[in-house]
Amino acid sequence: MRSEICNHPRIVDAETCLAGCTCGGDHPAPEVTLYSGEDAAQMMAEECRAVYGDRPVLLLFDPETYAVAGADLEQRLLSEKVNLTTHQFDSNPVATAALIDTVRDLDHGMALIISVGSGTINDLGKYSASEDQIDFWCLPTAPSMNGYTSGIAAIKVKGVKRTLPAAPPKRIYARPEVIQNAPLKLRQAGFCDVLAKVVSDIDWQCESLLFSGSYCGLPAAMMTTVEKSYSEHGLEIGRGDESAVMGLFHGLLISGVAMSLAGSSAPASGGEHLVSHFWDMREPLTGREPELHGLQVGVGIILSTACYRRLRELAAEDFPRRGEELFAATAAEIPAIWGPYADEVAKQFQGKRDALIQFNTLLPQKWNELQTLFQQVQSPEYFAELFARTGAPFNLEAFRLTKEEFMLAALNSRAIRERITVLDLAAHAGVLDLAANDALQLLSC
Fold it and tell me: Are 386 and 195 in contact (CB under 8 A)?
């Protein structure tokens, strides 16, 4: 047993946070540390005992994550005489307010929550720990999403997927062998999720130019430093090459930190993420089990980039002044699409009504500056080819999506959140349906 607690390096240091800032704001480096090694579970167990002694610890997992890493960690924690309580969720859990209540009922008096898993397990532990002011650590099991290090958790509340503030883990312990050997779908999901920042960053810049002035170049600068470690290695990620998969995992960690530094999910979550959230929220209504979040985001990237290409073809005088009419038409669709969740969705959409009406004047005024941003976005074919390199099918059939459900999301997912994205720009310009059909052609191959 190691006799002292190691000081593991932070994922991002203070100098990096200062170097890329363009907004003049304060970006303190998140105190998230990473230990990566085949002895990560043993290191976690020993340090858990050293830090918390006899104080109680809650360990969260599902059957799948228990099999690949949780059982081993549990035994190591017990061997170190950690005062351990465990909870196993059902397979494929969804991060709902009800499951958060379950965790919070369990965490009374706990000193630490540890999540073993990826997206949902991480969010359930992170949000509960944050709400109850309990320390949080995690043992990732897949390079499937960027939420490990983000300051938010995606939770379904009253049927609506919401991103809620949640402090990131203090410590992450990663076993490269576990990350490397994650199923292909999980690796592909992470590849799609991390590439979303290329599109979402432009969404953020457009919104900032039109309304908030909140954009900072720090997140994009941070991602640029690691982008080649994954974007050029789709084939290797698909084959499970350790260096490439761990490069992807590191890129996802940096992406999550970038969101924390920005104080929102804007750097890595734009219109492409709304599409995924739309399908997640529709599950109780359609019976379709959602595909992995990152894979659905990949479909959203194809749609968003198709929107940007259609917008590039327009001139300022092409914009109709019909913000009020378009808002009313989209709002009128909400009851039929969302049934019992319609009121909650309508509240979100109402939150950006004024901004959408301002498009009438703002878009023509800012059109030349917006066009400069539009030109930076790669084509949908470029991303479709990148995703295909991982070797897994990338089409509607593979994701159990009908053409009708795809089009419904393409035309209406912008209504589920207040955030302004390229989907709103394309809808106002009258090209959203054209872009959706462009994307549909690529996704029907």
Answer: yes
State the Cα–Cα distance between residues 262 and 260, nearest whole angstrom.
Answer: 5
Dihedral over Cα of 423, 426, 432, 434: its sign: negative
Based on the fold, state whether residues 59 and 22 are members of the same structural domain: yes
- Its domain, for residue 158, covers 14-178
* Same domain, yes or no: 154 and 273: no
CA distance 94 to 280: 9
In a domain, 3, yes or no: no
Strand 84-88 to 112-117 pairing: unpaired
For 304-344, the pLDDT digits (tens) are 999 999 999 999 888 778 899 999 999 999 999 999 999 99
Edge-to-edge order in the sheet of strand 171-174: 33-36, 171-174, 135-140, 112-117, 57-61, 84-88
Task: Render 128-169 in DSSP notation, one character per residue.
Answer: HHHHTT-EEEEEE--S--STTS-SEEEEEETTEEEEEE-PPP
Q: What is the pLDDT of residue 61?
A: 98
What SS3 class is residue 115?
Answer: strand
Distance CA 282, CA 275 (A): 11
- 239 and 315 fall within a common domain: yes
Question: In the predicted model, what is the mean pLDDT of residues 60-64?
Answer: 97
**What CATH number does residue 372 fall under?**
1.20.1090.10
CB 78, CB 21: distance < 8 Å: no
Half-sphere exposure of 385 (CA within 13 A, CB side): 6
CA–CA separation, 248 and 142 (whole Å): 10
